[in-house]
């Protein structure tokens, strides 16, 4: 009976879903580490996109587990927010680059307290 | 027992990543890469071993593990490569292998939109800005990258913070295996939802009915007022009019005619999240306006010129605009 169903309706084995969740956790953490470590502002924003990727993958995996497309719809909204964030962040980076002529985040450390 | 091994694997992967971020000699680097890959492989093996897998699922699982290595390795390259342009290109690799995983998880529509939106649009924007804000070769001097791309900021602390997080997250990954009983209920609900989605799309419904029986001319409501009646064997019964027949008759649709992923996502988007859809449009519009305002070339206009543009006269001795008008 299950062969007749299209794959979105069959019960998936849990192992692929668990692997997908492990990948999503790894992507999120790698993005986090990159955001903390890198000093180039553009790469820092690229790392936030990496974290978005991890979150979206977790959404898809749980949507597969529950056989519900709401998770996939959420990923579409995540894509929207990521696109908006990229546009705004990159405009800000261009603005900051014009002011200090460097992409280094350290050039703006005088904004902090210490 | 499992958590201890899992924490050990996390520690090894973390050590590999930290060494890669510290950027030493090339021999050192090979060792660090092997260490990191071994850690990731160990994490995946633990995850797969914890959850029993039927032999029929081994194919997709193998493909997924392959994609896992590609995406995690290129993600590591994104944060360790010296040259920002290469980082962006490695990110494209992360997105493409991520899309492959989406397809394996039967989310085809999102996979394609991910490639189009991320690899096609967002990454191109990133590359534009990278080219725009790149330091000229004269500033860099040699072929090597600039300082702030070469030297990481506190790699050890960041990696420890990150992998403590992943060790905590790992516990929740292990608890996924307890869900089998609920899955049957989920499947029945999903199939009912799928048929009800199909009944909302008259054209597709007629098409599917014609695919079953080519003499069908129209699909009509059943006697109980519903469009569709779902059977326990996942098939559905609809009421159709055939060519040369006066009264509607029943037609059974096989489960293979359930709507595909794209139809279901579209239906959910319009039927269950209409307000969010409109809000997404507004967010995109606002982002566009914001980007235009932020990135516009800001020219300094002197006060007098600004007043001239507004149709006011020049200020003399700080006096107000009424006097300015008189001067004109």
In brief:
The complex is a heterodimer of chains A (114) and B (328). Chain A has 114 residues and is an all-alpha fold.
Please describe what this structure looks like.
The complex is a heterodimer of chains A (114) and B (328). The radius of gyration of chain A is 19 Å and the shape is elongated. Chain A has a single domain, classed as Helix Hairpins (Orthogonal Bundle). In chain A, 71% of the residues lie in helices and 0% in strands. Chain A is mainly alpha-helical. The model of chain A has no long low-confidence stretch (mean pLDDT 86). Chain B is α+β, with helices and mostly antiparallel strands. Helices cover 67% and strands 6% of the residues of chain B. The longest helix of chain B has 25 residues. The chains are: A mainly alpha (114), B alpha+beta (328).
Shape, per Cα inertia axes of chain B:
flat
Could you name the CATH class of chain A?
A: Mainly Alpha
The biggest sheet of chain A, with number of strands, parallel, antiparallel or mixed sense and barrel status, is: none
Q: According to CATH, what is the class of the largest domain in chain B?
A: Mainly Alpha
Mean pLDDT of chain B: 81
Compute the gyration radius of chain A: what is it?
Answer: 19 Å
Shape of chain A: elongated
Query: Number of helical runs of chain B?
Result: 14
Quickly list its features.
heterodimer, A: 114 residues, 3 helices, 71% helix, elongated, B: 328 residues, alpha+beta, Four Helix Bundle (Hemerythrin (Met), subunit A), 2 domains, four-stranded antiparallel sheet
Give the topology.
The complex is a heterodimer of chains A (114) and B (328).
Chain A (H helix, E strand, L loop, with lengths): L13 H24 L3 H26 L3 H31 L14
Helix pairs in contact in A: 1-2, 2-3
Chain B lengths: L1 H21 L3 H25 L7 H23 L3 H21 L3 H25 L4 H4 L6 H4 L4 H20 L5 H20 L2 H11 L3 E5 L7 E3 L5 E7 L6 E5 L7 H11 L2 H22 L7 H7 L11 H7 L1
Antiparallel strand pairs in B: 1-3, 2-3, 3-4
Helix pairs in contact in B: 1-2, 1-8, 2-3, 3-4, 4-5
